[in-house]
Design brief:
This protein has helices at about 50-60, 70-80, 115-135, 155-165, and strands at about 25-30, 45, 65-70, 95-100, 100-110, 140-150. Strands 3, 4, 5 and 6 form a 4-stranded mixed sheet that branches. It has a two-stranded antiparallel sheet with strand order 1-2. By secondary structure, the chain is of the alpha+beta class.
Length: about 170
């Protein structure tokens, strides 16, 4: 006696076979089947924004980093931060390119006056690589840093004096 089985229909995401949804990266290409260990069943995908946020937080942790982003993005970010209910954008000044197993990160920094730019850049690079690799499991192939500006000690004082024209 022979029996025939019909194929089982599954509700799977409609993406290209073997590729994660756009904006995400497959970190582990797991397998399917009850005979596989539980840790290997399925696939893990990491969205690009995860790498952006981890890198942004890690860069801001370093002493000597005053702010991140270019002039216009910092201005818009300052206004956004002052709006009630607004949250700071930890991804400002961070751009990433993510592949299947690797990522490259570009950072735009504003450093405090008096600190060694090269030392701050080295510390930022080391902290970002460590944090991104630890949190995401992706290999960081490069961290490019652009220092756009230096925050001078009298920047806030002059802004406060010129801002108050009348009493």
């Amino acid at each position: 006696m022979t029996t025939q089985t019909a194929p089982v229909a599954r509700n799977l995401p409609t993406t290209q076979p073997g590729r994660p949804p756009q904006g995400t990266t497959a970190v582990s290409g797991g397998t399917v089947g009850a005979d596989q260990p539980a840790a290997d069943r399925g696939r893990t995908s990491i969205a690009d924004v995860v790498v952006v946020k981890v890198a942004g937080i890690a860069a801001r942790e370093i002493p000597g980093v005053y702010d991140m982003g270019g002039g216009l993005s910092r201005t818009i970010g300052a206004v956004r931060d002052r709006v009630p209910g607004g949250r700071p954008n930890v991804g400002r000044g961070v751009k990433v390119e993510v592949g299947e197993r690797q990522t490259a990160i570009d950072l735009e920094l504003v450093v405090e006056y008096g600190v060694s730019v090269m030392d701050v850049a080295q510390d930022v690079r080391e902290n970002v690589v460590s944090a991104v690799e630890r949190v995401t499991g992706l290999e960081v192939v490069e961290v490019n840093i652009t220092v756009n500006d230096v925050r001078l000690p009298d920047d806030e004082e002059s802004a406060a004096v010129t801002g108050a024209r009348v009493e």
